[in-house]
């Protein structure tokens, strides 16, 4: 079941729409140019997680694209409407996981008003399975160097735009080559991010546990899950570090994971076909920390 709620000033809390019927104009710039932004967040037991962090990143993406956004209050109420609507139409149990998408486009050509909606649908079983079974990952070139974001703001490097065709093509390329997912590298050889995730690695040396992730200045999306995990990990005694990282750092680590709001923490089992060690105890410990994030 999929629920849609359009943010519409004429409807307090949003307007529920039939997901089995056409709802967008064919001239919407989101469809014709991929001109828009989005967020994906997880709802557990009917409660959306990290809502403020996602609204903050949505606002930051909107600034990068010079897009008008509905108010935070309108988003929060539309999310509640969508989750209530889902619960009214399907059984929501304690372990029901829902993917909540916040979508904004530049709107219909010539109308000068954004189109904004919330979509709620179940998290696919395969996504949940990857948390358990882990991932075979390929390094693929992104084609930019790691300093391009500062030189070329029009590339929208740190924004979560609707132009994800390249990211999805990278995942299809991985699947066609006996892998599950991808870690992008820059043309100057730095580790960047996954097409839908942040890269995380752990090192344990002389009893000191350190969590590392690529630095934001390399043009990656600031991950809300990585950021929240770093906060709880620090409180639990972990040291924290930010790149630059190169592929050799990942081969040398005691654990490598891809982390994101919907899939949460998925251990990496191999890189470019070479097995790596991702210690199950570390995966367990970090997964428990991820579960504490709300
Ligand atoms: N990087 C990219 C390119 C993504 O698309 C995502 C999430 O979809 C992430 C990182 C992880 O972000 P978050 O943890 O906020 O879901």
Automatic annotation (TrEMBL):
<comment type="similarity">
    <text>Belongs to the class-IV pyridoxal-phosphate-dependent aminotransferase family.</text>
</comment>
<dbReference type="InterPro" id="IPR001544">
    <property type="entry name" value="Aminotrans_IV"/>
</dbReference>
<dbReference type="InterPro" id="IPR036038">
    <property type="entry name" value="Aminotransferase-like"/>
</dbReference>
<dbReference type="InterPro" id="IPR043132">
    <property type="entry name" value="BCAT-like_C"/>
</dbReference>
<dbReference type="Pfam" id="PF01063">
    <property type="entry name" value="Aminotran_4"/>
</dbReference>
<dbReference type="InterPro" id="IPR043131">
    <property type="entry name" value="BCAT-like_N"/>
</dbReference>
<dbReference type="InterPro" id="IPR050571">
    <property type="entry name" value="Class-IV_PLP-Dep_Aminotrnsfr"/>
</dbReference>
<dbReference type="GO" id="GO:0008696">
    <property type="term" value="F:4-amino-4-deoxychorismate lyase activity"/>
</dbReference>
<protein>
    <submittedName>
        <fullName>Aminodeoxychorismate lyase</fullName>
        <ecNumber>4.1.3.38</ecNumber>
    </submittedName>
</protein>
<keyword id="KW-0456">Lyase</keyword>
């Amino acid at each position: 079941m999929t629920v849609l709620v359009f943010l519409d000033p004429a409807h307090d809390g949003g307007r529920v729409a039939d997901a089995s019927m056409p709802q967008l104009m064919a001239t919407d710039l989101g469809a014709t140019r991929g001109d828009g932004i989005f967020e994906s967040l997880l709802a557990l037991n009917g409660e959306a997680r990290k809502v403020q962090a996602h609204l903050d990143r949505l606002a930051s993406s909107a600034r990068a694209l010079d897009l008008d956004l509905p108010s935070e209050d309108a988003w929060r109420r539309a999310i509640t409407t969508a989750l209530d609507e889902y619960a009214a139409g399907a059984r929501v149990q304690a372990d029901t996981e829902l993917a909540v998408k916040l979508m904004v486009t530049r709107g219909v050509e010539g109308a000068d008003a954004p189109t904004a909606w919330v979509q709620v649908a179940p998290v696919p079983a395969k996504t949940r399975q990857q948390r358990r079974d882990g991932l075979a990952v390929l390094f693929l070139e992104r084609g930019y160097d790691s300093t391009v974001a500062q030189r070329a703001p029009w590339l929208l490097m740190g924004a979560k735009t609707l132009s994800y065709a390249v990211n999805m093509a990278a995942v299809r390329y991985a699947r066609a080559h006996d892998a599950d997912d991808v870690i992008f590298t820059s043309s100057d050889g730095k580790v960047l991010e996954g097409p839908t995730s942040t890269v995380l690695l752990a090192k344990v040396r002389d009893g000191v546990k350190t969590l590392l992730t690529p630095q934001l200045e390399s043009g990656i999306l600031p991950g809300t899950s990585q950021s929240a995990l770093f906060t709880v990990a620090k409180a639990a005694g972990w040291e924290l570090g930010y790149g630059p990282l190169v592929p050799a750092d990942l081969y040398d680590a005691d654990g490598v994971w891809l982390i994101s709001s919907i899939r949460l923490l998925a251990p990496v089992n191999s890189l470019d076909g070479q097995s790596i060690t991702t210690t199950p105890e570390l995966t367990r410990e970090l997964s428990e920390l991820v579960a504490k994030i709300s």
